[in-house]
Design brief:
Layout (H helix, E strand, L loop, with lengths): L6 H11 L171 H9 L1
């Protein structure tokens, strides 16, 4: 039977049925291996020890995008992801990093690292959320300024009581107008004369 087979037919027969023929030393080869290289896992062309390796590189974990090794979750843009999925192909060791920066705490807006609450405008907030993207280490500052005491109206820091119109009030509330130094005149002329004598 073997004498009647052509070389091509014999070669195909050996690959498909994993047989050893006199004069040929054959090691089992995956039918789907590209370029005739040994495939120990899925299709690769080069050695694939895990999931499918794009562009013929070794994939030891999940599918590697652009042919780079992915040891953790799927690596975007061909960069190794050892933690959660990294946006932009950078490594994310904590929550998802926006714009491809590493996020070790909460999600950072604008791709900056947020080690405390979410920072508006991509700035790190180590205390309460800062309006306008500035750091707020105390109460929320209106207008994006830092408030280390009570809330400052108009975005100015209030270190004492609440300051109206954004001015700092360090004592009791100040009246809008100064008190008169002299008593006001009375309505009656007689009373006015009496008051003038006193």
């Amino acid at each position: 039977m073997l004498n009647t087979m052509s070389q091509q037919t014999l070669h195909e027969h050996v690959i498909r049925h994993d047989r050893t023929v006199v004069g040929y030393l054959y090691k089992e080869v995956d039918q789907d291996s590209a370029a005739g290289d040994v495939a120990q896992g899925p299709v690769a062309g080069d050695v694939a020890q895990g999931p499918v390796a794009a562009a013929g590189d070794v994939a030891q974990g999940p599918v590697a995008a652009a042919g780079v090794v992915a040891q953790g979750p799927v690596a975007a843009a061909g960069v190794v992801a050892q933690g959660p999925v990294a946006a932009g192909g950078d490594v994310a060791q904590g929550p998802v990093a926006a714009a491809g920066d590493v996020a070790q705490g909460p999600v950072a807006a604008g791709g900056d690292v947020a080690q405390g609450p979410v920072a508006a405008g991509g700035v790190v907030a180590q205390g309460p959320v800062a309006a306008g993207g500035d750091v707020a280490q105390g109460p929320v500052a209106a207008g994006g300024d830092v408030a280390q005491g009570p809330v400052a109206a108009g975005g100015v820091v209030a270190q004492g009581p609440v300051a109206a119109a954004g001015v700092v009030a360090q004592g009791p509330s100040a009246p809008t107008q100064a008190r008169p130094k002299t008593l006001p005149l009375l309505q009656s002329p007689t009373e006015n004369a009496i008051s003038a004598r006193w």
